[in-house]
C-alpha cells in the first residue's frame, strides 16, 4: 500500500445542474422568392425520378426496393426537423452529418449580432432520410403549402419543416459518389487488380440500416440479386441493431471490378438505393521489415523475468495477432483464446505483432524496467499472416470476414461468453493496437467506433485504441537531406511540424480511434533506448514531441482526440536517394524504439526487437491501466472493505489514465504551426500523462476520488477542503480535475452522444487561471480534463471549500438513463513552499475529509 494513498470523497450534495453557455453562429438566409425559384425545380426532379422508379418496380421481375435515400443539405442545424421526420409516415432518418467549411454566397453568409456581414465559412448539416413516393408526396405538399403562405401554421409536429425549407441549400438523392468517394474503395479495387491476379475481389457493402427485419431482408435480397447478376456472390451478412449497422461481404470477378474502377457511375450496382457505402476489407496490416542494413537477426534479451505470483484473472485483453506463447518474457503469462484455430496458419517466426503487443502490455517498454503485471493477459487473434513474393511478412485482418463481425463476436465472448466459453468478468480493459487506413476519420463515425462505444457503455469496459499511423514511407521536407541535417534541432522540429500541419487532412485518426467513450492514444516520439545519431542517420526531433507517424485530431464533433499521447518509440531518418524525402530506417532489431519480445528466426525464445508507432503507445497505456486497477482495488478494500464497484471500475481506470496528463513544454508546436497555445489539443490531446503521480499522493499533493450516477437535469456537488491561509503570502497552487463517463449513443444523429456530463468549479478564487485547452473543447467528448492554477494572495477562510459540481443533461436524446461517472480531483501546492513552511497538504485535507459524513452513490454495483 502506498504511504499516501488516494482518498475517496465521503459525500456529495445533490443539486440541480448548472447552465451551459454558448450559442451557434448567426447567418443570413435567402428570401422566400429565392428559395422558391431554386428549390421548386429540384422538388419536381425528385418527384419525376421516384415516379419513374415506381414504373420500373412494376416492370421488374426480380423486384426493386420502392424506398430511396433522400439527402437534404442545410446551412446550420435544424433540430426541429426531427419531429417532422417522426410525423411523416414512411420517412425514416438514416443519418445526419456535420458539414464544415461551407463557403458563403449571396444567399447564405455569417452575420454579427447587428446583422452585418462577417467573414468566415458556414456550418451545415447533411440529413439523409429514407423515403418512398407516399412520403415524398407529403413533403412536397408541405413545400407547396409553405411557398403559397409562408405564415401558415402547420399542425403540431410539422412546424419544423419551415426551418428546413428556409435553411435548405441542396436536396437530392443519395448518389454513387456518396457511396464511394470518401471510402477509398476505388484505390482498394485498383490494388486488388494489381496484386490478386485472376482471383475474385472481396469487399464490403454497408447497407442503410432499416428498422424491421423484413426491411433488412428485402435490402439484402435486392443487393444480393445485383451481385449475382454480375457473376459474384454474398459471402456473409452482419446486422447489429444496437449500432444501426447492416452490411454484407461480397465477392466479384476481376472483369466486374475493372468496370467499377474505370466507370463506377455507369455500373448499375452503384445506383442501388439500399447501399450506403462500398468499403475495402482486410486493410489493417502490420509489415515487419528485416532491414538490409541489419546483419544480425535479433538481439537476445538481457531482461530478467521476476518471479512472483501471477493471478489467473486477467484485467487486460488484447485483440491482435497470434503471440509466441513460450517466449521467455511471455511464458505462463498469457491466456490465448483461439476458437477459430488460427494457430495452424501462424508459424512461430510470423507471430511478430501479437508478441510485441503482449510484451508491452505485460512489461511496458523493456528498457523502462517497469514491474510486469501481476495478472495474466488474455489475447484473442484477429490478424492472420500473409507473405509476399519477397518473403516479407504482413500480419493483417482477414479479407474473408467482416472485421466488425469478428470483433463483435470476440468481445461478446469475453464479456458475455458463448456456448463454448464462460465470460471473463475480471477483464476491464481491452487493447486494440490497430487502425484501419481505409477509414480515415473525417466527419462520420465508423461502424467499428460505434460498436466500441456501445460495448463500453453496455458492459462497462474500457477500450484503449491506437490513434493510427501515417507517413510510414517518409516525409517530404522540401530540402536535401544534407541541408536538413545541418539545421538546429528546433529548426528541424519546426520544419517537420509545418509539413504535418499542411498535410493534416490526410493524417487524421484511423477507425476506430474516434470512439467517444474510449481512449485513443497518440504516439510520442520518445522511448528508453540509448541511441546516438551519426552522419547517415539522424533524429527528426530532439525533444519528445508527437511522433511524425502519429495520427492527429480532432475527434467526433471536434472533441479532443487522441485523448493522450504516450511513448511510441523513436526511429532514425535517412536520405531517400534523389529526392527531398526523408525515410525511416527499418531496424527492428536495433535501438532506438520500444524494446519488445519477438520471435527468433529459428524459434529462439529469448529475442527482443525495437518497435515504433501508436500501437506501442496504446499497449503501454494498457499496461498502466492494469496497474491503476491494482491501486484502485487497494484503495477500495482499505477504505470501504469492499472491492471496486463493478460499474465504476473501467471509468475509474479511464479517469486515472488521463488525470496526470499535461502539455509541459510542448508550446513549441503552437509557434511552429501558428496557432494559439490553448488550441494545441489538436496535436497533443489532453497531453502526456505522468501516471505514477496518480497512483499515490505526496506531502504537497492530494488526490480524491468521487463516483456516482446522475439523472438528467441533476448535479452532484463535491466539497474540496483547502485548510490553508492565502491572505498574506503568494503560494503557487494547482487544481486538476478529471471527469470520465460512458454515454449511450444515438447512431442516426450527428449529436450521437445521448448524454452530456460536465463539471464546473465554484468558489475557485485560489486557482482562477485555466491551463492547457479551452473550456469548450474539453466538454465535447466523454472525458473532461482541466488544470487550473493561481499564485496571488487572496482572502480565503481555511474552513471553506472549493466546490466541484458534476452536471448531467440530455444531448442527442430527450430521455436518458442515469449516467455513471468517475471523478478525480488533485490539489497541490508548490513543493518548495511546503518544505519551507512545513505544510502537509495531504494530511491536512485528509483530516478534513474524514470529518464529513459518508453517503452511498445512487448506482447498483
Write the layout of secondary structure elements.
Blueprint: E1 7-8, E2 13-16, E3 27-28, H1 32-59, E4 68-75, H2 81-87, E5 92-102, E6 109-110, E7 122-131, H3 133-148, H4 160-167, E8 168-173, H5 176-180, H6 185-195, E9 201-207, H7 213-229, E10 233-240, E11 245-252, H8 254-263, E12 275-279, E13 285-288, E14 299-300, E15 316-320, E16 334-336, H9 353-363, E17 377-381, E18 384-387, E19 393-396, H10 403-415, E20 417-418, E21 421-422, E22 429-432, E23 436-440, H11 447-459, E24 462-466, E25 475-476, H12 481-486, H13 489-502, E26 510-511, E27 519-524, E28 564-567, E29 573-575, E30 581-584, E31 594-598, E32 607-611, H14 614-640, H15 646-659, E33 661-662, H16 668-673, H17 681-684, E34 688-689, H18 692-695, E35 701-710, E36 714-721, E37 733-741, E38 755-762, E39 769-771, E40 783-790, E41 801-810, E42 819-829, H19 831-837, H20 841-850
Parallel strand pairs: 1-35, 15-17, 15-22, 16-17, 22-24, 24-27, 27-28
Antiparallel strand pairs: 2-36, 3-6, 4-7, 4-8, 5-7, 9-11, 9-12, 10-11, 13-19, 14-32, 18-19, 20-21, 23-26, 25-30, 29-30, 31-32, 33-34, 35-42, 36-41, 37-40, 37-42, 38-41, 39-40
Helix pairs in contact: 1-3, 2-4, 6-8, 9-14, 10-11, 14-15
